[in-house]
């Protein structure tokens, strides 16, 4: 292995003199440089001693006045070998340290765990060995040493940490008893060699917090065979003292599970509905849709072939007023359209969509708008823009429209492949080929370009107004196209708690007005959805009904970044840095204050930069492998 190739930093570094004023920052800088010089890493770190450590060094975060380093996050950069003592241990203002998913080996130096301000320590997924140090920062809040090779006991000193709320030690080789830990909200000790009985404080955690420790006993696992801890008959009836409480927390838990299942079920139903809804639809093969149609199409149909019902409001003298846009190759007229056989594709927030098959097997989507609140002129003006902005590969064009007092119809191309929503959330589990990271990044870039095009061609007053994953249609592999734009200002859409609400910017919910910046917000939610695999407004695990941006923000603030990402993405190698960059773009887009959000053009550039830095920095996969596999 050629370490010289993977060590971009010089070994002999001269501290620059211009920054003598900030002596502490200089000592932080030296500690970091000595760390980078001693620990080989295959991912490039731009830690140039001449550049500003607070503004440009990858993974380094300073406090507000730029006088100290308070966080160091280097997940998945291929750090190899032991953590040298007297390096990171000198960053004595450090609050967050994350070196997870590297190839670190050897002991964990005590000077790291006892850094006085250390709040969160993430070292999971390394190959650290030896005992866990016994001396810790009194501030320690999160300790994650899971998926390493630590041996020995869990230090008793952990029980003295009043701030500790989250402890992850799963998949190590720890033995001995569990210390008396309380105040924890998150605990995982599974897959170790722990023994003895589970302390009473910890009995409300699920059994998966303790699984894989065959010698552990007591709730929530099997009762201890040894009658010492509690009277023997307690095996089937809970002991009186701790009993009722314990039972209740068990009960609560199972309620939680039921709710989770119910929510999950509903989410699935919603997703299924989403598949069908709006302009963007997947072909529906069974008769479910047509039965909806039949119910409504009594007047026209004779029960054989389901007939259209979207023309019922068309006035006789107006029959040929279908307005086509330039460049459209369709040559049917309104009557042809009304004669076509139609099938309900779904009901969206703006109305019902039909798949209409005309003669000569032309298939189009007809969307029947309800609750249009503007007059004919305004409608036509908006349609003119909607038609004009459709000339982009990542935008689904409007082909034609019809307006009368009682009927408003829009005609789009029929796209048979599914929506992004289906790709992301459709039937997870067996037999599903998950959307890989490459594809997600490509789709995101395409949609960003499409929306940027809408903004630049449509002008400052024109926005999409309804960006969501079910409005991203797949037009080719890894290529999405955005639909359903420019309709929001025409409609009186009630603010029912629908799926789209999770995508709405706070100011758009308040004022019911959409803007470029509110589109950027919705696009940010879409990015977060692609990164987390979670649909907006879906209950993300523990906390009920938190919206996606807020959930992601809270998780990232606590440096749980790894938990944010879609488990389906975790199988791919070397994408962490890119995912983190994408996460940052998504979070910038969902800034609460509209002016803080980037423009869509900037978003496109930022996503493109991920790809560029990727091809520059990422070693070839071969090189990667040889470096990772042979530390
Ligand atoms: C971890 O280190 C041990 C010995 O130090 C070695 O046998 C093992 O293969 C390493 N595991 C990984 C995943 O690097
Ligand atoms: C832990 O160490 C043992 C022996 O040193 C080794 O066989 C095993 O692969 C290590 N486990 C991990 C996850 O590195
Ligand atoms: C916990 O703190 C108390 C008082 O501060 C001390 O007496 C005790 O020895 C500590 N226990 C451990 C395991 O450090
Ligand atoms: C954790 O340990 C369990 C039991 O040994 C094993 O099934 C699981 O694959 C481990 N997880 C990882 C990521 O090593
Ligand atoms: C736990 O295991 C250790 C050896 O690893 C043994 O000395 C101790 O007695 C065991 N404790 C219990 C309660 O089984
Ligand atoms: C604990 O970790 C194991 C192994 O990774 C996992 O299967 C289990 O779901 C986790 N339990 C909790 C409560 O986090």
UniProtKB/TrEMBL annotation:
Record keyword Ribosomal protein present = no
UniProt biased composition (Basic and acidic residues): 302-314, 609-625
Which terms are listed as keywords in the entry?
ATP-binding, Leucine-rich repeat, Membrane, Nucleotide-binding, Phosphoprotein, Receptor, Repeat, Signal, Transmembrane, Transmembrane helix
**According to its UniProt record, where is this protein located?**
Membrane
Q: Where does ATP bind?
A: 376
Domain Protein kinase stretches = 339-631
GO MF, one term, reads: ATP binding
- Look up and give the membrane topology term: Single-pass membrane protein
Specify where the region named Disordered lies, as residue ranges.
Answer: 289-314, 609-631
Stored Pfam families: LRR_1, LRR_8, LRRNT_2, Pkinase
Q: What are the transmembrane regions?
A: 257-281
Q: Name one GO cellular component term.
A: membrane
The residue range of the signal peptide is 1-23
In which family does this protein belong, per the annotation?
A: Belongs to the protein kinase superfamily.
> How is this protein named in the record?
Protein kinase domain-containing protein
